[in-house]
From TrEMBL:
GO molecular function: amino acid binding; dimethylargininase activity
Protein name: N-dimethylarginine dimethylaminohydrolase
Similarity comment: Belongs to the DDAH family.
Pfam families to which the protein is assigned, alphabetical: DDAH_eukar
Organism: Saccharothrix ecbatanensis
Domain of life: Bacteria
Alphabetized Gene3D superfamilies for the sequence: L-arginine/glycine Amidinotransferase, Chain A (3.75.10.10)
Keyword annotations from UniProtKB, A to Z: Hydrolase
Keyword hit for Hydrolase: yes
A single BP term in Gene Ontology: citrulline metabolic process
Active-site feature positions: H191 (proton donor), C285 (nucleophile)
Length: 292
């Protein structure tokens, strides 16, 4: 039995007795993200259980939280590109929903909700203007990294609420990578990226209750050592997190999840996304990864 001590969210010492070896040293890799400022952020319609148009929205606070997230990535050594926000598209801040990029190939998005449909064309134009020559726009409903999660080996693909299951085979053809289909069953976790995220090669974190029985079995087979999130961490969108292989950027409320990833050798980095969460988004929703 080994005692392991590390700093908690408030710098208080946490001590764990573990029967396994001390967590391995994790190595970060530099990432590139595409983000969109929430200049027009508001909640004026309902397309997920988190949205309530009667609740006041502070757009200035949303901008401050988004800026802090962007600066966090830059402080960690990552590169951030920015697309201009557009009036009338309050959810454009959630850039992850508008494209999936793997080895320079781009699969655009086709939104289920008509309120967001116009976002896809703005991102398509950005890709073409920024040197991406291979951009495929889908025929099937596909909400990009909202439901497509690249592990480095497989594209985990969610369905059940937004992305059409036939979009999974479309993604495989467009991106040339193997696709694993996963069924989401809880409307609170309407996208894959609010129920699961990749920590490092062959390691994920997820909330099993968000998935069908068969999908849970698939995840257990593929990732037997996965971090299992609590209901409390899922409920604050703690799994809408971003990892660079060492640093894990996640909502400040996700304390149990932070403790567990720290035990695995990662460094939690907390951000406040409380205002953006009023539209059902968090760090990952605001961050499309550009894998060139």
């Amino acid at each position: 039995m080994t005692s392991v001590s590390f700093a908690g969210p408030g710098d208080e010492p946490i001590v764990l007795d573990v029967a396994t070896p001390v967590a391995q040293v994790r190595v970060p890799t530099t990432r590139r993200y595409l983000m969109c400022p929430p200049a027009y952020f508001t909640v004026e319609y309902v397309i997920n259980p988190w949205m309530d148009p009667t609740e006041p929205i502070d757009t200035a606070l949303a901008m401050a939280q988004w800026t802090a997230l962007k600066e966090t990535y830059e402080r960690l050594g990552h590169h951030v590109s920015v697309i201009d926000p557009q009036p009338g598209l309050p959810d454009m801040v959630f850039s992850a929903n508008s494209g999936t990029v793997i080895e320079g190939r781009v699969l655009g998005s086709r939104f289920r909700a008509p309120q967001r449909a116009a976002e896809a064309e703005h991102f398509r134009r950005w890709f073409l203007a920024n040197g991406y020559g291979r951009v495929v726009m889908p025929e099937r409903t596909n909400e990009a990294e909202g439901d497509f999660t690249w592990t480095g080996k497989y594209l985990l693909a969610g369905t059940g609420f937004r992305t059409d299951p036939l979009a999974h085979s479309e993604a495989q053809e467009a991106l040339g990578v193997p696709v694993i289909s996963l069924q989401l069953t809880d409307p609170r976790y309407y996208h894959l990226d609010v129920a699961l995220f990749v920590l490092a090669d062959d390691l994920i974190a997820y909330y099993p209750e968000a998935f069908s029985t068969g999908s849970r079995e698939v995840l257990r087979r593929l990732f037997p050592d996965a971090v299992i999130a609590t209901a409390e961490d899922a409920a604050c969108l703690g799994l809408n997190a971003v990892s660079d292989g060492r640093h894990v950027v996640l909502p400040v409320e996700a304390t149990s999840l932070a403790d567990e990833v720290a035990r695995r050798g990662f460094e939690p980095v907390f951000v406040d996304v409380s205002e953006l969460r009023k539209s059902g988004g968090g760090p990952k929703c605001c961050s499309m990864e550009l894998r060139d």
